[in-house]
């Protein structure tokens, strides 16, 4: 019966902390701003910024030193691509570079004088293209378009000898193609759009950062109340609960609060903007459960550094950019410095971004993402113990402060 009573008492204390924390969340407009407004607005704002998803009609200048039928056909082919638009002709490369410096164009195509002669001799013709590297998305579209033009022109201009070509094909006048035809299949991002690529990862970072920021705001406010209270205790806290009941009551409150937001951010937003969402909702909702738990425990651990309410902004704003780079969205993990790779392993969103994109965009299962899933549960356990240690330290400090005042 002793164990039964202790279990019931622990559950009762956990429930009291849950109810108390729920009231704190609903009564704090700052916390609601980050718990509700940020997850509701940010995914839509980010997606609208990146629509349309691809960069097209990039203005380029042409320097045609050949001025032949073949060079004009090359220019027409380039202009016909969705990504590029021939803005103007330049008399020489100097004039074209001046147009680029004035941002009238973002690329220069220079056709050499011997372009047609080399093609007629069956030699390789070199056509330089000067691209503006100030925006990687623009550069990517330019290079992809020029590669497609190269492949298309090569299939038309490939020299063919009589010995290698069937007479029937020559008689029929059929166009010969390259020996090897390449096809690109963009798994998880069929539109090759930037929003489809980045938003599924960004929403995981939004879930983590908004929850941690709200938790730290509550923690900083609680520390301020303790300093104002003559007894050194937080009048709104459930002081009778132990550290384990406290952290679990708080964590369950945050997790339950975030469940509707998770459904909104992972189902409704992709439907609104036709973003990739091929995976099973059950699979990625189960996957996101340890992400929410580990993020909540991490936030409760960071409460130790919250001396006042404003401290939350300093820590979270400082870490947000770092977490973004370490998530693997902007730089691949295999090319990351080992030290920063170890740091990234301590961040729930690192594992969450990788696993969620695989499940949501490519239809992977929990079994296939078992490494990321297990890693999230390990982080949940680790930060659960660190959060319990923090709240034990806070409770001991509060009692000592109350005894000194008495």
Question: How would you summarize this macromolecular structure in one to three sentences?
Answer:
This protein has 406 residues and is mostly helical.
Topology:
Blueprint: H1 2-26, H2 29-49, E1 58-64, H3 69-80, E2 84-89, H4 93-101, E3 107-111, H5 115-121, E4 129-131, H6 136-157, H7 167-172, H8 194-228, H9 243-273, H10 281-302, H11 311-326, H12 338-345, H13 348-362, H14 370-405
Parallel strand pairs: 1-2, 1-3
Antiparallel strand pairs: 3-4
Helix pairs in contact: 1-9, 2-8, 2-9, 8-9, 8-10, 8-11, 8-13, 9-10, 9-14, 10-13, 10-14, 13-14
Textual characterization of the structure:
The structure is a single chain. With 406 residues, this protein is mainly alpha-helical. It folds into 2 domains: 2-51 and 194-405, no CATH class; 58-172, abc type-2 transporter like fold (3-Layer(aba) Sandwich). 65% of the residues lie in helices and 5% in strands. It contains 14 helices and 4 strands. It has a 4-stranded mixed beta sheet, sandwiched between helices. β1, α3 (69-80) and β2 form a beta-alpha-beta unit. α2 (29-49) runs antiparallel to α8, α8 (194-228) packs parallel to α10 (281-302) and α13 (348-362) runs antiparallel to α14. It is elongated, with a radius of gyration of 30 Å. The chain starts with a helix and ends with a helix. Residues 160-164 and 169-178 have low confidence and may be disordered.
């Amino acid at each position: 019966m002793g164990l039964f009573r202790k279990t019931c008492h622990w559950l009762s204390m956990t429930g009291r902390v849950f109810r108390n924390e729920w009231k704190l969340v609903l009564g704090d407009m700052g916390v609601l701003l980050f718990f509700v407004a940020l997850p509701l607005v940010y995914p839509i704002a980010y997606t609208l910024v990146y629509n349309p998803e691809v960069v097209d009609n990039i203005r380029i200048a042409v320097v045609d030193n050949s001025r032949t039928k073949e060079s004009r056909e090359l220019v027409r082919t380039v202009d016909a691509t969705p990504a590029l638009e021939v803005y103007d002709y330049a008399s020489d490369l100097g004039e074209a570079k001046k147009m680029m410096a004035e941002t009238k164009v973002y690329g220069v195509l220079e056709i050499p004088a011997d372009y047609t002669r080399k093609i007629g001799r069956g030699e390789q013709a070199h056509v330089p293209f000067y691209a503006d590297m100030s925006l990687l998305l623009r550069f990517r579209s330019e290079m992809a378009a020029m590669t497609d033009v190269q492949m298309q022109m090569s299939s038309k201009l490939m020299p063919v000898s009589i010995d290698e070509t069937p007479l029937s094909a020559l008689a029929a006048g059929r166009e010969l193609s390259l020996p090897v035809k390449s096809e690109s299949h963009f798994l998880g991002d069929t539109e090759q759009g930037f929003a489809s690529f980045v938003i599924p990862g960004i929403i995981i970072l939004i879930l983590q950062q908004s929850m941690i920021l709200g938790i730290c705001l509550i923690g900083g406010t609680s520390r301020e109340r303790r300093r104002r209270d003559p007894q050194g205790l937080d009048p709104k806290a459930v002081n009778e609960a132990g550290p384990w009941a406290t952290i679990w009551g708080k964590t369950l409150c945050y997790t339950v609060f975030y469940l509707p937001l998770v459904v909104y951010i992972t189902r409704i937003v992709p439907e609104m903007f036709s973003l990739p969402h091929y995976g099973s909702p059950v699979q990625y909702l189960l996957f996101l459960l340890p992400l929410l738990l580990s993020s909540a425990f991490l936030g409760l651990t960071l409460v130790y550094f919250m001396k006042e309410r404003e401290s939350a902004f300093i820590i979270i704003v400082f870490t947000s950019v770092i977490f973004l780079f370490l998530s693997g969205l902007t730089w691949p993990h295999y090319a990351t410095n080992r030290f920063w790779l170890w740091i990234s392993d301590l961040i729930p969103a690192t594992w969450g971004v990788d696993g969620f994109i695989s499940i949501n965009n490519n239809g992977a299962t929990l079994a296939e993402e078992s490494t990321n899933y297990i890693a999230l549960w390990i982080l949940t356990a680790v930060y659960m113990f660190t959060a319990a240690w923090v709240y034990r330290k806070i409770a001991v400090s509060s009692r000592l402060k109350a005894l000194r005042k008495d």
